[in-house]
Amino acid sequence: ASNSMIDQGVDVITCHVDSPKVIVETAERRNIFVCGYHADQSKLAPKGYLTGAEWNWLPVYQEQLQAAMS
Fold first, then answer.
1. What is the DSSP string of 45-67?
2. In angstroms, what CA-CA distances link 35 with 12, 22, 26?
3. CA dist., res. 2 & res. 32, Å (int)
4. Contact 38/54 with Cβ under 8 angstroms?
5. Which of 28, 30, 35, 52 could form a disulfide with 45 if both were Cys (CB 3.0 to 4.6 A apart)?
6. Alpha-carbon dihedral angle through residues 63, 64, 66, 69, given to the nearest 10 degrees
7. 47 in the Ramachandran plot: left (φ > 0), alpha (ψ -120 to 50) or beta?
8. pLDDT of 9-30, one tens digit each?
9. Residue 29: what pLDDT?
10. 43, 51 in Cβ contact below 8 A?
11. What is the pTM of this model?
């Protein structure tokens, strides 16, 4: 799907998937910009990575664990 959109002229792609690696690498290889998801993917696309949401679940898990232990 990413390649098809790029072939049609898209110059920025984003995604909402648990493993954006393939999309980020495809964007970099095809010389367009990309926004990642879940983790910092900038090393996979040093020229084209714009930004991405990163989730820090540790505080949430710690809070839930502490509540269960209490």
1. -TTTEEEEEE---HHHHHHHHHH
2. 8, 12, 12
3. 11
4. yes
5. 28
6. 170
7. alpha
8. 999 999 887 778 899 999 999 9
9. 96
10. no
11. 0.74
